[in-house]
Amino acid sequence: xxxxxxxxxxxISVSNEELRVMLEAGYILREAARFSEAEAIFRGMMEFxxxxxxxxxxxxxxxxxxxxxERAEEICEQALSINPESLYARVxxxxxxxxxxxxERAENELREIISGDPDSPHSQTAQxxxxxxxxxxxxxxxxxxxM
Amino acid sequence: xxxxxxxxxxxxxxxxxxxxxxxxxDVQQRSKEPNKFLKVLGGVASTALSFVAPGLGxxxxxxxxxxxxxxxxxxxxxxxQRQFEEMQRYNQISSSLQNRQQNQMMNQQQQNSMQLISVxxxxxxxxxxxxxxxxxxxxxxxxxxxxxxxIKS
Lengths: 147, 153
Hints:
The complex is a heterodimer. By secondary structure, chain A is mainly α. Chain A has one domain (15-134): Serine Threonine Protein Phosphatase 5, Tetratricopeptide repeat. Chain A is built from nine helices and no strands. The longest helix of chain A is centred in the N-terminal third of the chain and has 16 residues, at 16-31. In chain B, helix 3 (36-52) packs antiparallel against helix 4. Chain B is rod-shaped, with a radius of gyration of 39 Å. The mean pLDDT of chain B is 78. Chain A binds chain B through residues 14-16, 19-20, 23-24, 27, 48-49, 52, 54, 57-58, 61, 88, 91, 120-122, 124-125, 127-129, 131-132, 135, and chain B through 129, 132-133, 135-136, 138-140, 142-149, 151-153.
C-alpha cells in the first residue's frame, strides 16, 4: 500500500505558532544569505497556506535579496493575484519595481499605499522605501516628494 | 642657472645672520671723523671745481674733505656702497624666499582644508545613507513581523 505511506500536505496538522516560526526561519535564512534554504521554506509554506499571499511575498523578497528583480516582481504580482488588497504584497511589489529601475511606477504605488493607510507598518516601509529611492535607483531624475 | 634661487626648489633652511655674511660691516661704519679744516677746504674746492667740471668737483671735494683726506676714503665709500647693494640683494632674496615659503604653506593649508571638507562631506553622506538603510531594514522587519503575526492556517 504505497499510497498510505505518504501524507498529503493537508493531512499534516500545523499550528499557527509553528507556521509563524517557520516563516520567521525563512526570513532569518534570507537575511543570512542562505537563499536556497529560505526559498525551500517559503515554497513549503506556500503549500501549507495556498490562500495566503504571505509566503509568496516572502519568496519574492528572497529573489529581491538575490538581485533577481524581475523574478521578484513576477512572484509579488502572483501574490497580489491571491490578495489584491494586501499592503504587504503591494509594498514588496513596489520594492521590486524600484530595484528594477521602474522608479516612477514604484513611487506612485508606494504613495498610494501610504495614502490608503498611513499608520500601517507596511506604509512605514513604503515611506522608508521612498526615502531610500535615491540610493536604490539613483539614475532617474524624479522628484522625491514624500507623501 | 641651476644655482638660481628663484628657479631651483626652495630649501626651508634659514639664511645666515647678516653679521656672519658681512663681518666687517661694523668696521666700515666706524669711519674716521674728517679734519674740520679739510672739510671746509674740500667744500670750497668742490664748489669751485663744480663750475669747471661738475662731476669731478664733487669727487675732489670729497677726496680732500672726506675721512682722512686720501683716496682710501673714496675706495671705502665705494666698498660700502657695494656692500650695501649686496645687502639689498641679500634682503631681496631673503624676502623672496620667505614669500615663497609662505605661499607654499598657504597652498598646503588650502589643500588640507579642501581634503578635510571632502572627507567631512563623504562621512556625512555615508551617515545619511546608513540611517536611511537602517530605517528601511527596521520598517521592513516590522512589516514582515506584522504579516507573520496575522497568519492563520
